[in-house]
Specification:
The chain has 300 residues and is an all-beta fold. 3% of the residues lie in helices and 38% in strands.
Length: 300
């Protein structure tokens, strides 16, 4: 890991020594929704789908009054309303709540519906257990074979008071020493990063890697360049060229382990980092997970 001293992640405990790195390696994925037609389009509702090993991102442009439903949803999923000018009525688990814009909401398994009250955009996050949605993903062909580095998906513990609609405002003040704004549920961790005011300082990037999980970087506003480098092993047939991928909004980048990576804002913008399941190291930092009282960590 190589974090600038000003980066809160510099205070993370060092990771355990990884096993010897061998190839072949899994490729990164870039889904630039602004360059491709949506996978679904009807009655003014347009939705793009892209996935990683354990997650699906559904990015939708929605007209006022549109309703999106799930029947027999196998696990908890996420509704992200990134803009203040939109709201939604969510029904699930025998309750209905009005959700304001600029929020993140966790929706229980089972039957549910989301009705938006004003035209805008929404993001939903699912696991590939939602097989009907996994099949729609533009990059579905890249995940037909397992990645031995990534363990099978296991949910985190159910909240002590059970599943229900849980919504949190994104309007949280920045706090020194805390990395972004992080929430978690049984399936996902969402880090709504501090917005970029302009291009990132070229002398303060943060190249790092993950041994056994992917990172999803969702660009909502602006533009970012994702820099990704794979290890050189003794087998040169496994080597891969460095990637420096310029991605505008809206887009999804899937960064696989154990690649070294960092992202640079090229202009003012907003990026969200997504992990499935939640990260233990972030969860162990006091004060980093803003709803840790609602969702317990696994024992041990």
């Amino acid at each position: 890991m190589a974090y600038d001293a000003s980066d809160p992640r510099a205070a993370l405990a060092p990771a355990a020594a990884p096993a010897a790195v061998t190839g072949p390696f899994t490729a990164a994925h870039y889904a630039k929704f602004y360059e491709t037609p949506p996978q679904e389009e009807a009655d003014g509702l347009r939705t793009w789908y892209a996935r990683g090993r354990n997650f699906i991102v559904a990015y939708s442009e929605v007209p006022a009054g549109a309703t999106l439903t799930r029947s027999g949803q196998p696990d908890e999923y996420v509704l992200l309303l990134p803009d203040r000018g939109i709201a939604a009525e969510v029904t699930a688990g025998g309750e209905t709540k009005t959700i304001d814009g600029y929020s993140v909401t966790f929706i229980p398994p089972g039957d549910s519906s989301i009705t938006v009250t004003a035209a805008g955009r929404i993001v939903r996050l699912f696991t590939p257990r939602s097989e009907d949605l996994a099949a729609k993903c533009s990059n579905a062909a890249g995940f037909t074979e397992p990645d031995p580095r990534i363990p099978p998906l296991q949910n985190w513990p159910t909240p002590p008071d059970g599943f229900r609609i849980r919504s949190y405002t994104l309007d949280v003040p920045k706090e020194p020493g805390r990395f972004g704004k992080i929430w978690r549920c049984t399936t996902f961790m969402v880090n709504y990063l501090d917005p970029a005011a302009g291009p990132r300082d070229l002398t303060k990037l943060s190249p790092h890697h993950h041994d056994d999980f992917e990172q999803c970087s969702l660009v909502l506003n602006g533009a970012y360049t994702h820099h990704i480098r794979w290890p050189w092993t003794t087998n040169s047939t496994h080597w891969q060229e460095d990637e420096h991928e310029y991605c505008k909004a809206p887009s999804v980048t899937v960064i696989p382990p154990p690649s070294l990576h960092t992202s640079r804002a090229e202009e003012a913008g907003q990026m969200v980092d997504i992990f499935c399941p939640p990260r233990v190291d972030f969860s162990m930092k006091p004060g980093w997970v803003l709803n840790d009282a609602d969702y317990p960590m696994p024992k041990g």
